[in-house]
């Protein structure tokens, strides 16, 4: 039987985010870390009912269950990383327009306050995890999650994410997480992806 899960292709060339995120970082982060989560999950679901479920179904099914922590962690990390690659694009950053811009203003006051809150969440997440822009009810919020945790198991709709595991920035930024976060927010965030998620 073939493995049910595969590593999704990167949405751009591995040199596309240089010099802000190097091809060397992507070779490890995508080629080793993201791939390992896929390989691990395939081993964990082999011969089980889980093998016929979607990634989202597995995440929702295993969330919060101590005896399924390995399944949850690997499935959620596959999902999170695919979402992260799509949250970035070459020549990204800047400000959104239209409905997204209006929601940012309604939820945070203005774009600069949104940027500060997102950066603060990404920098203050203790240890490994993720900072997110989510839609919660009819407003946008900034949330942070630990390790592999995802917002959608709590009913929040993810729009963008920043990976703050050390493996995301250590090759290019060493211990300077704040500089990595500021670079992503100003130059790489993919607002087209966020708008698609908002309207999905
Ligand atoms: Zn990562």
What does this structure look like?
The protein is mainly α and 200 residues long. It folds into 2 domains: 23-86, Orthogonal Bundle (Helix Hairpins); 98-199, 3-Layer(bab) Sandwich (minor pseudopilin epsh fold), CATH 3.55.40. 52% of the residues lie in helices and 12% in strands. The chain is built from 8 helices and 3 strands. A 3-stranded antiparallel sheet has the order 2-1-3. Bound molecules: zinc ion. Residues 29, 33, 81, 163, 165, 167-168 line the site of zinc ion.
**What series of H and E elements makes up the topology?**
HHHHHEEEHHH
Report the top-level CATH class of the largest domain.
Alpha Beta
How many beta strands in the DSSP annotation? 3
Helix vs. strand class: mainly alpha
Helix fraction bin: 40-55%
The fraction of residues assigned to DSSP E strands is 5-15%
Q: Give the biggest beta sheet.
A: 3 strands, antiparallel
Number of domains: 2
Low-confidence residue ranges: none
Shape: globular
Quick take:
With 200 residues, the chain is mainly alpha-helical.
Keywords, separated by commas or semicolons:
200 residues, mainly alpha, Helix Hairpins, minor pseudopilin epsh fold, 8 helices, 3 strands, 12% strand, globular, binds zinc ion
Secondary structure: elements and pairs:
Elements: H1 23-45, H2 55-62, H3 69-87, H4 98-108, H5 111-124, E1 129-136, E2 139-146, E3 157-163, H6 166-173, H7 177-188, H8 191-199
Antiparallel strand pairs: 1-2, 1-3
Helix pairs in contact: 1-3, 1-6, 2-3, 5-7
């Amino acid at each position: 039987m073939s493995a049910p899960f595969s590593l999704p292709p990167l949405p751009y060339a591995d040199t596309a985010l240089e010099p802000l995120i190097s091809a060397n970082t992507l070779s490890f982060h995508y080629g080793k870390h993201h791939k390992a989560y896929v390989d691990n999950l395939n081993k964990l679901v082999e011969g089980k009912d889980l093998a016929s479920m979607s990634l989202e179904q597995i995440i929702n099914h295993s969330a919060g269950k101590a005896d399924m922590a390995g399944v949850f962690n690997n499935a959620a990390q596959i999902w999170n990383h695919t979402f992260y690659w799509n949250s970035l694009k070459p020549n990204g950053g800047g400000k959104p327009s239209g409905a997204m811009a209006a929601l940012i203003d309604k939820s945070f006051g203005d774009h600069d306050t949104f940027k500060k809150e997102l950066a603060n969440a990404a920098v203050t997440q203790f240890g490994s995890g993720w900072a997110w822009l989510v839609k919660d009810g009819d407003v946008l919020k900034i949330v942070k999650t630990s390790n592999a945790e995802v917002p959608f198991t709590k009913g929040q709709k993810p729009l963008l994410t920043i990976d703050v595991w050390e493996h995301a920035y250590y090759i290019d930024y060493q211990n300077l997480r704040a500089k990595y976060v500021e670079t992503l927010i100003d130059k790489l965030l993919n607002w087209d992806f966020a708008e698609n998620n908002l309207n999905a």
